[in-house]
Amino acid sequence: MALTAPFPDAARMTRTDVLHDAEATKRIIRRRPTQTQGQALEKLGRAIEYLMDSRMALIDEPSTKADAEALEILMRLNRCVFSECEEIVPVGRRLKAWVLAKVHAH
Question: What domain of life does the native source organism fall in (predicted)?
Fold first, then answer.
């Protein structure tokens, strides 16, 4: 059994895919990745770090537009994978949502 997940299409991703609402950008979001998502995040992080390091420190040349685009794509994919991980909702927030649902139901 293969543990592969579909890789998001970078050409169709937008900033709103990650930033759904203003409230989400103000609070810390903790997520629990699956093993596959964790591996993808680790590999994307290493690729981002390698690209940045190779341009900034290893090669004594100015960054090109292609470098910037590649870095942007990798970072966007990283955020997309992260946003697809299961969110860890604190007990207090779950309790508050439950209470509000009960109050509004009556």
Answer: Bacteria
